[in-house]
Specification:
- This protein is an alpha+beta fold.
- The protein has a single domain, classed as 2-Layer Sandwich (Heat Shock Protein 90).
- About 35% of the residues lie in helices and about 25% in strands.
- It has five helices and five strands.
- Strand 4 and strand 5 form a beta hairpin.
- Helix 1 runs antiparallel to helix 2 and helix 2 packs antiparallel against helix 5.
- The longest helix has 21 residues.
- The radius of gyration is 14 Å and the shape is globular.
- The structure holds adenosine-5'-triphosphate and magnesium ion (MG).
- Magnesium ion binds next to helix 2.
Length: about 140
């Protein structure tokens, strides 16, 4: 199964829509709750980052027998220093983002914790977050 979601920058009302649909899909398949939880936690953080830090983009969700693969692509302005951005508490979020409850600087570190594989590539033309969640023997608990 493959699904694709458009993610609109600055739209706080629609923010989280892709993650909600992913959650609904995984729940309807009766996958274990702890698995659903870690996929959704990461997908929500990645989606919100596209909403608040980028000019917009899209996500793809792929469900295979033994894994879920999430990809988030946006069209810039990119992450200047990925190592710094991955640190807990680092954030460039605006005052408005903070007012909306974002900007603790925990999104990327939480994604890293939740996913089995996380690859971040970024340049001024865009950021790509690639996440894999394994099920079965290699699964995180
Ligand atoms: N898609 C993106 N495009 C551009 N910059 C990004 C993107 N995602 C993350 N960043 C940069 O990395 C920083 C850290 O991201 P992270 O998700 O960890 O924290 P946050 O979004 O600032 O706060 P929180 O996720 O806790 O609400 C962001 O503040 C931003 O500078
Ligand atoms: Mg974030």
């Amino acid at each position: 199964m493959v699904k694709e979601y458009q993610i609109i920058a600055r739209n706080y009302d629609l923010a989280g829509r892709a993650s909600s649909d992913i959650k609904r899909t995984l729940k309807s398949l009766e996958l274990p709750w702890h698995f659903v939880k870690r996929v959704c936690a990461a997908s929500y953080e990645a989606e919100i980052n596209v909403v608040i830090h980028s000019v917009g983009g899209y996500a793809t969700f792929e469900l295979k027998d033994d894994q879920v693969i999430l990809d988030f692509f946006d069209d810039g302005p990119g992450i200047e220093n990925i190592d710094l951005a991955m640190m807990e508490g680092y954030s460039t979020a605006s005052e408005l983002d903070h007012a909306n409850g974002f900007g603790a600087g925990m999104g990327l570190p939480n994604m890293k914790r939740s996913a089995d594989v996380m690859e971040v590539t970024s340049d001024p033309l865009g950021t790509h977050i690639h996440l894999i969640f394994y099920r079965g023997p290699y699964e995180k608990s």
